[in-house]
């Protein structure tokens, strides 16, 4: 199951995005003056915001229901400061574009136009597609092991890692769900849920890598492996959420766990003779290319698609191939056990 290191390792790169809180765009004096003026007047040029309790004619927004914002905007909880930052960013980037300058980052993010209150619409859509592919892969795996492959006399699957892959699917789908939510609206709660789900996926994937690569079948040994991994994982998540949300420390933890997973799977791949290992190499090399794209971190195309969104797009076919390898492994291991018992 060598490809199971890929998603967590790629997810590790997302931990670094939290490090980029300050950027050249928001440090610019023109942008800062725009935000300060907007917070006082509630307007950027001819655009005024209800959150700042002003219209263009300076009347309060405490009016009838038909003058209030649509529900699809209200649920995003855009406040005065966030609206001012967003529209000052657009105004500043429009000026820079006229002067022939490249886009700059603001508060750690590229200037991406939102739609219907969604902060990064293309990345959200691609995250949702990744969630759908994960769900499809898990369901097809579930059908395979429960309805197409033979059972033991005790009515259990011959594949010893069935339950673990079910749990893994839950962690992976949870990660993509909160990624979509976080990219839809970046607030403290969604940020914590996004990063916590990423770390949870990392920790469980490391545990799965150790169990699968070393073919640990004794339940007591699995518990001994799980105890320190889950203990460290839980401590880290509690520290990040209830003591200090340290982006640098979180990035370090992500990298260390990813490095351990790569080492485990590399050792396994060096001696394994899996009949479908070509899928592994496609995932490995395809994943390497997609991670390079994400590290390049180019300005968004058409103000909608940036490097992270493109990385999400490449993850869709790789995830499909990944689950295909998981299913092949279950068939292969089942046939090995049955042939051995004959």
Automatic annotation (TrEMBL):
Which BP terms in the Gene Ontology apply to this protein?
Answer: GPI anchor biosynthetic process
Q: How does it sit in the membrane?
A: Multi-pass membrane protein
- Keyword Signal belongs to the record: yes
Check the record and name the Pfam families matching this protein.
Per1 (PF04080)
InterPro entries per the UniProt record, alphabetical:
Per1-like (IPR007217)
Q: Name one GO cellular component term.
A: Golgi membrane
Check the UniProt entry and state the signal peptide residues, or none: 1-22
Q: Does the keyword Transmembrane helix apply?
A: yes
Q: Where in the cell is it found?
A: Endomembrane system; Golgi apparatus membrane
Q: What is its main location?
A: membrane
Q: Which UniProt keywords apply?
A: Golgi apparatus, GPI-anchor biosynthesis, Membrane, Signal, Transmembrane, Transmembrane helix
Where are its TM segments located?
124-146, 158-178, 193-211, 223-242, 248-268, 280-297, 309-326
Homology family: Belongs to the PGAP3 family.
Q: What does this protein do?
A: Involved in the lipid remodeling steps of GPI-anchor maturation.
Q: What is this protein called?
A: Post-GPI attachment to proteins factor 3
């Amino acid at each position: 199951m060598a490809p199971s290191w890929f998603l967590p390792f790629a997810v590790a790169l997302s931990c670094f995005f939290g490090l980029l809180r300050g950027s050249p765009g928001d440090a610019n004096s023109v942008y800062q003056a725009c935000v300060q003026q907007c917070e006082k007047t509630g307007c950027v040029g001819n655009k005024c915001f209800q959150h700042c309790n002003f219209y263009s004619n300076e009347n309060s927004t405490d009016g009838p229901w038909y003058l209030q914002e649509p529900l699809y905007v209200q649920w995003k909880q855009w406040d005065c400061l966030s609206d001012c930052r967003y529209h000052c960013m657009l105004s500043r980037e429009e000026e820079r574009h006229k002067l022939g300058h490249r886009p700059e980052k603001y508060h750690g993010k590229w200037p991406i136009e939102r739609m219907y209150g969604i902060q990064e619409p293309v990345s959200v859509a691609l995250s949702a597609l990744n969630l759908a592919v994960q769900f499809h892969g898990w369901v097809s795996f579930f059908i395979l092991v429960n309805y197409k492959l033979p059972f033991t006399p005790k009515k259990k699957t011959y594949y010893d890692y069935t339950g673990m892959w079910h749990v893994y699917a839950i962690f992976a789908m949870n990660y993509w769900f909160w990624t979509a939510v976080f990219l839809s609206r970046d607030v403290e709660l969604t940020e914590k849920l996004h990063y916590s789900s990423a770390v949870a996926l990392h920790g469980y994937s490391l545990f799965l890598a150790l169990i699968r690569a070393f073919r640990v079948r004794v339940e007591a040994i699995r518990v001994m492996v799980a105890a320190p991994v889950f203990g460290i994982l839980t401590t880290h998540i509690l520290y990040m959420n209830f003591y200090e949300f340290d982006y640098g420390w979180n990035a370090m933890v992500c990298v260390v766990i990813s490095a351990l997973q790569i080492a485990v799977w590399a050792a396994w791949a060096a001696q394994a003779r899996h009949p479908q290992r070509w899928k592994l190499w496609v995932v490995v090399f395809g994943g390497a290319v997609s991670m390079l794209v994400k590290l390049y971190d180019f300005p968004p195309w058409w103000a909608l698609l940036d490097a992270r969104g493109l990385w999400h797009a490449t993850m869709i076919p790789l995830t499909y191939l990944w689950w295909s390898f998981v299913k092949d492994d279950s068939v292969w291991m089942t046939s090995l056990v049955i042939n051995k018992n004959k």
